[in-house]
Automatic annotation (TrEMBL):
Residues 2-285 form the DUF6493 domain. It comes from the Bacteria. This is D-tyrosyl-tRNA(Tyr) deacylase. It holds the Pfam family DUF7825. Residues 656-898 form the DUF7825 domain. Residues 385-651 form the DUF7824 domain. The lineage of its organism: Bacteria, Pseudomonadati, Bacteroidota, Flavobacteriia, Flavobacteriales. InterPro entries: DUF6493 (IPR045472), DUF7824 (IPR056726), DUF7825 (IPR056727).
C-alpha cells in the first residue's frame, strides 16, 4: 500500500491517485497518514540553484500529496492548508464527489481566519448546493466581499448574503475598488434597501472592524448623501456611533449631525450624554468639531445651559490653547455662573492654561494654580536591596528557574541560569533528577522552532546537553528524554538542507548563533558547560547580582579572589563582560576588600576600575582587561599607558563613544526628505592574542534583534550600541517597519532601566525618540526625561540642541513633540517646569526660519514661562522679533515678548 503510493508519487501519475484511494478502506487510508506527511516533507525540501530555488517536488507530485491528504487525513492532521485545496481543482472536485470528508464543512467555515485562500464566493455557493458544506454567515460575508461580480446570478446574494457582508466584511473590502460604484448602482436601482444599508454603515462604527473597513463604510455613507429626513430617522445609530474607537467614524458622524442640529427632532439631551467623552478625546479634530456643534446648539436652540456647560468643562482635559480658548468663549457667552459650573471646572483647574485662567476668573475659585512642589531626589543608586537578583539555592530551585530563563532569554534570568547550572549541576539524585524532564521538553520545543532568539539557542542547547549527560547517569529515571531528543533531532535534520539554517542541536561548539557579537556569549556558555561537566564550581565572573544588568563591586572582588585562591585563569571574555557590568557608583567597600584580599594584576586592575588609582598601574599581563576597565570607567579618557597595546587599528570613535552626526535635507522629492546621518567607521574583525570583547560587537556584521540586549553588556558605556541602533533604525522619522520599531522600543526600555547619566550618543538617541512616530516609544522617552530631571542627571541644553537640529529641518512633525510635552512633561513639579523651559529654549535656539506648527511649540513655551514666572531667553527673543513678521506667529511672538 505504501509502496504503491510511493510509486504513484515518484512517477507523477496524478491520474491514478483517485482510483487508488477509492479502493482503500477507511482504516487503510488512515494508516497512510504518516507516509503522506513524510512525502510532504520530502517534496517541500528547498533545492537551491545558482540563481533561484524551488521545492524538490513537481507540480503533479504536490497535487498527488494534496489529494491524498484531503482523502486520508482528519481535520487536525490536514491543518490549515487552504492553499493546497485548489492546486488541482479537477482532482479535488473528484475527491469531494467520491467522498467529502465529514470535517470539510467546518474546515471551510474556518477559512475566514486564513491569510488567503484559493477558493472564492462562487465555490462556496456551489459546495453548499451540492451539500458539501453548510456555510455560516461569516463565511458568506467574508467571501462575497472578495468577489464583487455576478451579483445577480444567485437570488440569495442580494437578498441575504449582501447583509452578511455588512456584518462580517473581509479586511480587504476597502481595496476592492469595484464595490463603491456597485453599491451606488444597486441603491439607485433599488436592488438593496437604501435605509437599511445606511443604517448598516453607521452600525459598522461599533463593530470592531479595523480602521480601513470602518472608514470604508463611513465613506460609502457620505457618498450616498443621506437627506436630513434620513439623518433624523437614523439619529439613534448616529449617536451610538459617537462611542466608536475609530476617530474617522466619529468625525464623519459629527459632520452629519451638524446638518440636523436645528431640526426640532434633534435629540439634544441624548447628545449631551456623549459630549464629555467627545470633548476629552485625544483627537483634536473630534474635540474641535464637538465644540462647533455645541456652539451651534446654543445659537439655534433653547437649551438648559448648565447641562451643556458641565459637559463643556471636560474640554479642559486638553492643554491645547486653541481648544481651551474656544471652550472658554462658549462658556462666557452662553453659560451663567453657578455653583455647579464652578464645581465642574474645578476638576480641571490644574489643567487650565495660564492665559485662559483670567478669562474664566468668574467661574473658578481662584486665578492661581495650586503651588507645585520641588522634587529633589538623591542620585539613583544602581545597587539596592530592591533590585537584588534572587539566585537559586538548590537543584530544585534551579529546575523552577530554567523555564523562566527559556521564556525570557534576553533578561538576567539567562545569567542566573548559567550560574545555577555550574553551582548545582551535580547536586542531583534519583528523586530530584525527574525534575529535568519538563525543562528538557521545554528546551527541545523552543529550540525546534524556526526563529529562535540566539540567547535561547545557547541556553536551550546547554540544557539539552546537560539533560543528555544526566541521561547517561540515570537511564531508567530519564528514559523519556531519549524519545524527546530523537524527535527534536529529526525535526532539525529536515531543515539542515536549507542554506540559511543554523545548526542548533549537538555539541555547543558547533551551534550557529548568527554572528560575531553572539560568539562572546557562546564562548562563555562553553566555559560554563565545561565547568558543569568537570564539577568545577568556580563561578563565572560576569553573572549579574542586581537587575537589570549590574554586578556588585564587592561580589566582583570576591569572585576574582576565588580564581586567585584556586590559581585558575578566568575566561578573558568573561572577565571583560564582568568589568563592563560592574556598578561603579559606590565602591568604597570594594576598594578596601580588594586592597586586603587581592594581589598582583587582579588587585591593580580592580583598583583602577574602582577609581582608587587615577591612572593604570602595575603589570599589564592582559591588555584587553585593562582597556576594557578604562572604557568602562571613563569612556571619554584616553590613557597613554594603553597606546602600545596593539589596538591602533580600531577607530578611536569606538573607544570614545563620540560619533559625528548631522540632520540633513536630502531632497524634498526623495523618499526620505530629511535624514539623520551618523558616521560609524568600518572595522573588520581581526583575531589577536588579547581580543577585546568590544571588537565582537563593533565589527561589521548583519543586524539582528538581540542588539538591545547588548545594553546589558555595556551599561557603563552605551554609546556604541546606541549609535548602531540610530544608524539602523532612526535615520528617518517616518520609518515604520515592525523590526525597526521593536529594536528602538527595546533599546529605549533598556536605557530607561539602566538609569545612568547620558553620554553624547545617549542625548542623540533620547532627543531622536522624542520625535519618534511610535507613541509608546515617545512615552518612554518622556519617562526617561522625567526621571533624569528628578535625579538631576540631565543636561537639557544638550538634549534641546539635538531636538532643535532635527526640527530645524522638520525631521518629524512638531506636534509629536508638543503633544508629549503637554501630556507628559508639563506641570509635574517646579523642577520639571524649569527643566522644560530650558529644553524648549534650546530647541528654539537651533531654529532659523519658522517651521510647520512652530506656533504650537511657542504656545507651550509661553505656558511654561507663565508657570515659572520668567521671561523668554534673551537669544530666543531675538528670534521672536524676526518671527513675528509671520502673520500666523505675530500674536504668540508678541505675547512672549510681552508687547
Amino acid at each position: 500500500m505504501k509502496e504503491r503510493l510511493y510509486e504513484i508519487l515518484n512517477e507523477g501519475k496524478i491520474h491514478e491517485i483517485v482510483p487508488f484511494l477509492k479502493q482503500l478502506s477507511v482504516d487503510e487510508r488512515k494508516a497512510l497518514v504518516p507516509t503522506i506527511k513524510k512525502m510532504d516533507r520530502e517534496i517541500n525540501k528547498i533545492v537551491m540553484t545558482k540563481n533561484s530555488y524551488h521545492t524538490a517536488g513537481s507540480v503533479d507530485q504536490h497535487s498527488i500529496v494534496d489529494i491524498a491528504s484531503l482523502a486520508c487525513m482528519d481535520q487536525k492532521n490536514f491543518g490549515k492548508n487552504y492553499w493546497s485545496l485548489f492546486r488541482n481543482i479537477e482532482q479535488t472536485e473528484k475527491i469531494l464527489e467520491w467522498g467529502c470528508p465529514d470535517w470539510f464543512s467546518d474546515f471551510i467555515n474556518e477559512s475566514v481566519e486564513a491569510e488567503s485562500t484559493t477558493f472564492n464566493y462562487q465555490n462556496v455557493l456551489e459546495w453548499a448546493e451540492k451539500g458539501y458544506i453548510h456555510p455560516k454567515p461569516e463565511l458568506l460575508g467574508y467571501h462575497l466581499c472578495n468577489y464583487p461580480k455576478n451579483l445577480d446570478k444567485h437570488p440569495e446574494t442580494l437578498k441575504t448574503h449582501f447583509w452578511y457582508l455588512c456584518e462580517y466584511p473581509s479586511k480587504s473590502l476597502p481595496f476592492h475598488k469595484e464595490w463603491f460604484p456597485i453599491i451606488q448602482k444597486l441603491v439607485a436601482e433599488k436592488k438593496i434597501d437604501r435605509k437599511r444599508f445606511l443604517r448598516e454603515c453607521l452600525l459598522a462604527s461599533n463593530r470592531n472592524f479595523n480602521k480601513n473597513v470602518t472608514g470604508w463604510f463611513m465613506d460609502v455613507f457620505t457618498a450616498l448623501k443621506p437627506t436630513d429626513e434620513e439623518l433624523v430617522e437614523l439619529q439613534n445609530e448616529l449617536l451610538a456611533g459617537l462611542t466608536s474607537a475609530q476617530s474617522k467614524a466619529i468625525n464623519t458622524i459629527l459632520i452629519h449631525l451638524k446638518k440636523i442640529i436645528q431640526n426640532p427632532e434633534f435629540k439634544i439631551d441624548e447628545f449631551s450624554h456623549y459630549l464629555p467623552n467627545l470633548l476629552s478625546s485625544e483627537v483634536k479634530t473630534v474635540v474641535a468639531s464637538s465644540l462647533i456643534l455645541t456652539e451651534k446648539i446654543f445659537q439655534r436652540r433653547r437649551v438648559n445651559p448648565e447641562m451643556l456647560g458641565i459637559a463643556l468643562s471636560t474640554a479642559f482635559v486638553s492643554k491645547d490653547d486653541g481648544i481651551q480658548s474656544k471652550a472658554s468663549k462658549i462658556i462666557i457667552k452662553y453659560i451663567p455662573v453657578s455653583e455647579n459650573i464652578k464645581e465642574a471646572l474645578s476638576h480641571y483647574s490644574d489643567n487650565i492654561l495660564t492665559n485662559i485662567r483670567p478669562v474664566l476668573a468668574k467661574y473658578i475659585e481662584d486665578t492661581q494654580q495650586q503651588e507645585l512642589e520641588d522634587i529633589t531626589t538623591e542620585k539613583l543608586a544602581l545597587i539596592t536591596k530592591e533590585n537584588r537578583v534572587e539566585e537559586p539555592k538548590s537543584f530544585e530551585d534551579l529546575m523552577f528557574l530554567l523555564p523562566l530563563a527559556i521564556e525570557n532569554p534576553e533578561s538576567y534570568y539567562y545569567d542566573i541560569a548559567l550560574a545555577g547550572l555550574i553551582r548545582f549541576g551535580d547536586e542531583v539524585n534519583t528523586e530530584s533528577v525527574i525534575l529535568i524532564e519538563p525543562v528538557f521538553l521545554k528546551a527541545c520545543k523552543t529550540i525546534a522552532k524556526w526563529e529562535v532568539p540566539y540567547f535561547n539557542v545557547i541556553l536551550c542547547n546547554l540544557v539539552i546537553n546537560y539533560g543528555l549527560s544526566l541521561l547517561k547517569k540515570f537511564p531508567l529515571e530519564l528514559k523519556n528524554l531519549e524519545k524527546i531528543y530523537a524527535k527534536t533531532r529529526e525535526n532539525e535534520a529536515s531543515r539542515e538542507s536549507y542554506s540559511s539554517y543554523y545548526k542548533k542541536i549537538g555539541p555547543i561548539e558547533g551551534v550557529g548563533v548568527g554572528g560575531l557579537a553572539m560568539n562572546v556569549f557562546k564562548e562563555i556558555a562553553m566555559d560554563a558547560y565545561h565547568k558543569i561537566q568537570s564539577g568545577d564550581k568556580t563561578p563565572l565572573l560576569s553573572t549579574i547580582t542586581h537587575a537589570p544588568c549590574w554586578i556588585s563591586p564587592v561580589k566582583l572582588v570576591e569572585r576574582f579572589e576565588s580564581y586567585q585562591n584556586k590559581n585558575i585563569e578566568p575566561n578573558p571574555l568573561d572577565v571583560q563582560l564582568a568589568l563592563q557590568r560592574c556598578a561603579l557608583d559606590h565602591v568604597s567597600e570594594a576598594v578596601s576588600l580588594a586592597e586586603k584580599n587581592l594581589k598582583g594584576e587582579y588587585k591593580d586592575l580592580l583598583l583602577f576600575l574602582f577609581g582608587k588609582h587615577k591612572s593604570p598601574k602595575g603589570k599589564f599581563e592582559h591588555p584587553a582587561w585593562w582597556v576594557t576597565a578604562g572604557i568602562t570607567r571613563s569612556q571619554d579618557v584616553a590613557f597613554d599607558e594603553f597606546k602600545d597595546f596593539g589596538y591602533e587599528n580600531i577607530p578611536q570613535e569606538f573607544f570614545s563613544g563620540i560619533y559625528e552626526w548631522k540632520t540633513i535635507d536630502s531632497n524634498k522629492n526623495s523618499y526620505y526628505p530629511v535624514e539623520l546621518n551618523i558616521s560609524i567607521p568600518k572595522y573588520r574583525f581581526e583575531k589577536r592574542k588579547d581580543q577585546l570583547l568590544m571588537e565582537y560587537f563593533i565589527a561589521e556584521q548583519k543586524d539582528f534583534s538581540e542588539i538591545p540586549a547588548f545594553m546589558w553588556s555595556f551599561p557603563n558605556a552605551q554609546a556604541n550600541i546606541l549609535a548602531r541602533v540610530i544608524k539602523i533604525c532612526l535615520f528617518y522619522s517616518g520609518l515604520a517597519e515592525v523590526y525597526e520599531r521593536n529594536l528602538v522600543l527595546n533599546t529605549a526600555k533598556a536605557l530607561y532601566q539602566i538609569k545612568k547619566p547620558l553620554d553624547e550618543m545617549g542625548y542623540l538617541f533620547l532627543g531622536t525618540i522624542f520625535l519618534d512616530g511610535d507613541k509608546t516609544i515617545r512615552g518612554i522617552a518622556a519617562e526617561i526625561w522625567l526621571e533624569h530631571v528628578s535625579h538631576q542627571m540631565i543636561n537639557n541644553a544638550r538634549l534641546g540642541k539635538v531636538i532643535g537640529l532635527h526640527e530645524k529641518l522638520e525631521w518629524a512633525p512638531v506636534k509629536r513633540l508638543t503633544d508629549l510635552m503637554q501630556h507628559h512633561m508639563l506641570n509635574v513639579s517646579k523642577n520639571h517646569n524649569h527643566a522644560l523651559e530650558e529644553l524648549i529654549s534650546n530647541i528654539l535656539l537651533q531654529m532659523e526660519e519658522p517651521v510647520t506648527n512652530l506656533k504650537k511649540l511657542l504656545e507651550v513655551y509661553h505656558e511654561v514661562l507663565a508657570l515659572n514666572q520668567s521671561e523668554a531667553n534673551g537669544d530666543v527673543q531675538q528670534k521672536l522679533n524676526d518671527w513675528k513678521e509671520n502673520s500666523s506667529l505675530k500674536k504668540i511672538c508678541n505675547l512672549l515678548l510681552k508687547k
